[in-house]
Design a protein that fits this description.
This protein is an alpha/beta fold. Helix content is about 45%, strand content about 20%. The protein has 2 domains: about 170 residues, Rossmann fold; about 35 residues. A 7-stranded mixed beta sheet has the order 4-3-2-1-5-6-7, sandwiched between helices. Helix 6 runs parallel beside helix 7.
Length: about 220
């Protein structure tokens, strides 16, 4: 199906890129799946030799059911899964406390003692100016992208692929897909965050314009 194109989207990477371009906090960004499909259809028509977008594979990290944000995120992910033309593929989202919070607080308390300051007052002033946020890391997403890209390319499901990711670990899967005859275009919301290996290997690099149109309005999750 040389006239067909499939899109593989690392949503964590896309969300971070859109947040950086729009000045929002990454945890507040929710992407509009329908708008993303429309945008990728335009990219396929313009940069994949007029190919028709067959399907968009949406890769994201999901919270464990015990997490307080699980139900809210699940509503959002269900809405994504119900979007025509989108297939939802989920890895895991691991959340860890900030590594520096404990050592930094201890250092501030020692500083207060050495300067003869009240610990409580210093820490209150510090907390008013600084907020520690947990570190979130996707697990398993690159593996899913690798498996899908190579498996589907090997079955000649499509002749063109659009990849939204900047991870150098995907360079070899891209090379394998190309060996199967697939033309791979990298799409990115900005010039930063794209590994040199991917940029050099891609059959084309497209900068997505109008990142604001991807923001989901009145999101419930």
């Amino acid at each position: 199906m040389s006239g067909s194109c499939a899109a593989f989207v690392d949503v964590g990477y896309l969300r971070a890129s859109v947040a950086a371009r729009t000045g929002q906090k990454i945890e507040q960004v929710r992407l509009d799946a329908s708008e993303l499909v429309r945008l990728l259809s335009e990219v396929a028509a313009e940069h994949a030799l007029g190919a028709t977008l067959l399907r968009t594979y949406w890769y994201d990290g999901a919270y464990d059911p015990s997490h307080t944000a699980f139900a809210r995120q699940r509503r959002y992910l269900d809405a994504v899964a119900n979007t025509p033309g989108v297939q939802l593929r989920l890895g895991h989202l691991k959340e860890s406390p900030p590594n520096l919070e404990g050592p930094l607080r201890a250092a501030l308390q020692r500083t207060a003692d050495s300067l003869g300051l009240a610990r409580r007052e210093l820490m209150r002033a510090f907390d008013a100016q600084w907020e520690f946020r947990p570190t979130r890391q996707q697990k398993g997403v690159d593996t899913l992208i690798t498996l899908d890209l190579v498996r589907l390319a090997g079955r000649s499901i499509f002749g063109h692929a659009i990849l939204i990711s900047g991870d150098r670990d995907l360079a070899e899967p891209v090379r394998t897909a190309q060996d199967y005859g697939v033309r791979v275009v990298i799409a990115t919301p900005g010039t930063g965050g794209l590994a040199k290996e991917l940029r050099q290997l891609a059959d084309g690099v497209v900068e997505l314009s109008g990142a604001e149109r991807l923001l989901r309005r009145h999101a419930s999750g």
